[in-house]
Amino acid sequence: MSTMAVICEYNPFHNGHKYQLTRHKEVLGADSVICLMSGSFVQRGAPAIYDKWTRAKDAVLNGADLVIELPVVYSAQSAQRFASGAVNLLDKLGVVDFLSFGSECGDIDTLTKVAKVIASEEFNSLVEEKLKSGISYPAARTQVIKEHYPELDENLISSPNNILSIEYINAINKINSNIEPKTLLRNQSFASASEIRSKICSNESVTESIPTETRKAYDMRAYDNLVLYHFRKESPKSLQKICDMTEGLENKFKKASQATTSYEELAESVKSKRYTRTRIDRISANALLGIEDWHTELKPQYARILAFNSRGQELLAKMKKVSQIPIITKVADANPDTEEFSIMFEKDLLSTDIYSILTNKPAGLDYKTSPIKL
């Protein structure tokens, strides 16, 4: 019995995701599918458009057998941290044979070749040299890789799914995991998640793009106000601890929070050539959640179950026998017996409680909501 895993956000779940789950499972001959999905906050540095249980249910209804929550200390981070945390968690489950990911490239050999460059000892120092000219980190990475492989299409090393694909491969290699990376060429005929989110927020129809019904998105204005309030409340000294808050950025955030009246104004005033808007958004999410750099380096402490079907229940039974980390089906039964477990767990609970504010729901939903069985 072979198992395919997908690291995902499903923000929201759409027809392209359904295609990947069903098509790649067929190509690989996998018997079951595990989805490791971002919870309340996603990699772009924002709350997910729908809550995690809704998105997990959509996944199981459309090809997944088991959905596990990716801890928030990994989910709202850079591609490297996001991929590293996710791959490490999947490896510890002891049941994953393949890691499936869509890419604009579609060629695992080419992605692996670029991954080796990024993993080399000299890569980071070369990128640092490029950064001194004032360009952004993504641009610096692209320049260094192009110098190694001038023949590569620049889109290959700048497209978001290719970037994540490369980081997945590196994360697998770094821990010598037996999980085999497999990529599927992204089908460009499907609308992207960003296009769909934009339409949902504008109250436009997306029925042709998603296999499930449209729901109401979270209150974006409420989130912006929470972040703005947080930066006004905190001191520059306390903000220094936040993940990716480097080179005096804490002073820029503090000053901007006092001079602007919206988060949009704040973010636009802090961003620069070196610090992209996405990075500013991630720092803002980390600040609200109190996530520090060292939190993102924590090893996976548990696997939190969000949804499953009958095949997923069989996987769960197998995982409980071989997993190197605890499997949490009921939050009340969790046993945070170490500092690392407690920190990771508390951040997940906090992210859900903050999300509850944005959707006009009470706190404590993690304790009140059982995994969805379909």
Topology:
Blueprint: E1 3-8, H1 15-28, E2 32-38, E3 41-42, E4 46-47, H2 52-61, E5 66-70, H3 72-75, H4 79-93, E6 98-103, H5 108-119, H6 123-131, H7 137-148, H8 160-174, E7 180-185, H9 193-201, H10 220-233, H11 236-239, H12 249-259, H13 263-270, H14 277-289, H15 293-296, E8 303-308, H16 310-322, E9 327-328, H17 339-358, H18 365-368, E10 372-373
Parallel strand pairs: 1-2, 1-6, 2-5, 6-7, 8-9, 8-10
Antiparallel strand pairs: 3-4, 5-8
Shape: globular
Give the % helix: 40-55%
The major sheet is characterized as: 8 strands, mixed
Number of helices: 18
Under the CATH scheme, the architecture of the largest domain is: 3-Layer(aba) Sandwich
Number of strands: 10
- Helix and strand succession? EHEEEHEHHEHHHHEHHHHHHHEHEHHE
This entry's quaternary arrangement is single chain
